[in-house]
Amino acid sequence: MSLVFAVYVVAPLVTIVIGGVLAAWVYTHHRSVRGSDWFLLHLVAGIGWMGAFLAHVVLQDAELQILAAILSSKLSAWAFIANIVFASVYSESDFHRHPLAKVALGGIALSTLIPTWIAPFQSIFYREFVLVSRPFHHVVAEKTPFYELVGLVLAILATYGLLQLVRYMLTTPRRSRAQLTLFVLGTLSVMFAIVAEDGIWFLVEGLSTTEFGVLPYVVCVSLALFRFRLFDVLPVARNAVVEALRDPVFVLDGERRLVDFNDAALTILPGAGDRIGEAFADVHPTLAAGIDFGPEAADAPARLTLDVGGDTRHYSVNVSRVDDDGGDVDWYSILLRDVTDLERSRWQLAKQNERLEQVASTISHDLRNPINVADGYAEFLDEQLAGDSLSGDELDAARENLTKTRESHERMGEIIEDVLTLARGGKTVGETEPVSLSTTAWEAWENVETGDAKLSLTGERTVEVDRSKLLSVFENLFRNSVEHGSTGSRTQSDDSVEHGSTDPRSQTREDGGEHGPSGVTVTVEAIDGGFAVADDGPGIPAVHCERIFEDGYTTGEDGTGLGLSIVRTMAESHGWTVELDGDADGARFVFSTADSPSSSSVTRSKPPANAR
User: Fold this and answer.
1) Which of 377, 405, 425 is a domain's end point?
2) Weakest-pLDDT range from 53-57, 207-211, 220-224, 242-246
3) Does 612 reside within a domain?
4) How many Å apart are CA 150 and CA 104, to the nearest integer?
5) Which 3 state secondary structure label does DSSP give 131?
6) pLDDT tens for each residue of 537-558
7) For residue 284, what is the domain's CATH number?
8) Residue 265 CB partners (closer than 8 Å, separation 6+)
9) Choice between 175 and 320, residue whose per-residue pLDDT is larger
C-alpha cells in the first residue's frame, strides 16, 4: 500500500470518527439550542460524504466507484446546504429565508434527488467517468457546466454565511470570539481545499482534494465545541437577551476584568468600549467597591447610589456567578436595576409617616394644654356669673377671664391651622408648575403683617414647584423675620426662635413679647443650586441652631414649634433640602434645588405693579 493511498484512506476515517463523536454529543446534549438541528444534519451529511469518498478509494469495481463518487457529491451538497442554513440561523441573520436563497437552496436540494447514477440523468451533471489506475484505482468525473453552476452557487452562499459568522465574531463578547474564530478557520480550510482542487495542486491527478479540508474543519469545530463550548454562549442569545435589557449589564472574567457590557451600561460608564480587559476596580472604582463577589451575593442584592450624568441615581445590584470554560474559575454578570423612583417613593412615604406622627403628637399634647386653660377660665367665669350680683372688680375679672378664654380658643385655632399645614405639606407633590421666585415672594410678603420691614430680591429665577407650598414657605419665614428679627423694638430675641401660625393676617405674637413695628430687611436671594431667605436681625442664638427644625421645638411660652418644621416639610416634599446658615450675621435659610440662578438684583419695600 502506497503512502498516497494511505493518506486518502486515513484522512476520511479520522474525519468520520471525530464527526461521529461530535454528532452524538450535539444530539444528546444540545438539541434544544437554536440551529443545532441544522448543525447535526451538517455533521451527518459530512460523515456520509466521507464514507462515500472512502468507498470510492478502497473499492476496486469501477461501477461501484462511480456510484460512490456520485453519492459523495450528493452528500457533500447536503453538508454545504446544512452548513449554510446553520450559519444563517446561528447568527440570527436568517438570510436563508430570503426568496433568492430559498430558490437556490431548494433547487440544489431537489437536484440531489435526481438519480444521476442512471444513464439518462447522469449526463445532467457528468459528461463521463474515466477509470484511472495510478497511484491506485479510482474514477475521475468530467463535470458539466450545470454541475459547476451548482458548486458556484453553494460557494457563494457558504461565503456569505461565513461573513455573517465573522460579523458576529466581531460584535459578540470576547469569551465567544475564540469559539467563532475556530469555526471560521475550519470553514476556510474547506474553501481552500476547493480552490486547490480547481487547479493549484493535486495529490492524485483528477481526484478531489475538498475532502482533505474537511478534516481540519472537524478538528476546529471539535475545539470550539468541547474546549470553548460553541453552543453554550450563542451570539444570538447574547444579542436577544442582554442587549434587550434596559438595565445596565457588565460581564467580568475570573480575574474581575471587564469583558463585556450592553448598550445600557454606557449610561453609567460611557467609555466602557475602551476599557475592555482592564480590572473592573480601575474601570469603575465606586461600583466595584460596592459589589460583594462572595457566594452569598446573589441572595442579597446590594444597593448603590451613583452619580450618572450629574444626576444621583439609586441602583439595586445583582451579581451572578457563572462557571468558566474550565469550570474551576467563576465569571460574573452584574445587573444594575434603576430603583431611583422606588427609593424616592420610599423616602416620601417615610416622610409622610413622620408627618402623621407629628400630627398625632401635636393633637395629643400641644392642643390639650390650651383646652385645659380654656376650661379652667370657663369654670371661673361660671362661678362668677352664678352669683346674684357682681361688683365692679368681679365684673372686670369675669371679663378678663372671658378674654383669656377667647385667646386660648384662638390659640387652639392657630395650632389646628399649623397641624393641617404640616399634614398637608407632608403629602407627595403632585402637579408642579414653573413659578417666578420674585413674584411668589412678593405675594407672600403681602400676606404677612410686615410693618416697616423691607423685602429685597437678589436675582431672578424660575422654579418648578407647587406654588401654594412655596407661598407657605415664604410666609412662615417672613413672619419669623418680622416678629423676631427687629433691631429696634425686639424685647425677647433670645427667648424665641420661630413662629408657628399660618394665618396670613394673624397679629398674635406667639413666640416672644410685644415687638412692635420691625425695621428688619428680609432678602430673598437666588443662589447657585437654589435660593436663600435671610434677614439682618440679631439672628438665632447658637444654643438653638441645631434644634430649630425639630417638630414642636420652641422657647416661647405660647409657641407651637411647628413654623420651621412646616418650612422643612414643604421643602422636602419637593425633594429639596433646607439648612440654617450658621455663618450669617442674621437668620439665613438656604434651600438647595436643581435650578440655576440669574444675576439681577433689586430691593423694594413695596411690590411692583406687575408683581401679581
Assistant:
1) 425
2) 242-246
3) no
4) 9
5) strand
6) 888 887 777 777 776 556 555 5
7) 3.30.450.20
8) 248, 249, 250, 272, 336
9) 320
